[in-house]
Design goal:
Layout lengths: L2 H13 L3 E6 L17 E7 L8 H11 L1 H5 L4 E7 L10
Parallel strand pairs: 2-3
Antiparallel strand pairs: 1-2
Length: 94
């Protein structure tokens, strides 16, 4: 299973998101630390889920990192997270 598909499945199971977009940005990181010739190392996640209501940015990131702990330990080098609760403005990329 591709890493992107695994991330999508795990986040869907963990958070039942209203919306979820997982973007593989590995091709943008040739020559950078952590890049692998096969890709699947750098991802950007946009997720909206009720599970994030009342939680701050750091807690949301920790929740996502916990859900993806095996993937992070096993080869994901970079993970950009944009997490919001329903009705909140979408977080702006940093």
């Amino acid at each position: 299973m591709r890493t992107k598909d695994l991330i999508t499945r795990k986040l869907t199971e963990a958070f039942a998101p209203e919306s979820l977009d997982v973007i593989d940005e590995s091709d943008r990181h040739h020559g950078h630390s952590g890049h692998s010739p096969g890709g699947q190392t750098h991802f950007r996640i946009h997720i909206v889920a009720q599970a994030f209501a009342g939680k701050g940015r750091v807690e949301r990131h920790r929740m996502i990192n916990a859900a993806l702990a095996d993937e992070i330990a096993g080869g994901i080098h970079a993970l950009a997270i944009h997490a919001a609760a329903p009705g909140e403005p979408a977080p702006t990329p940093r």
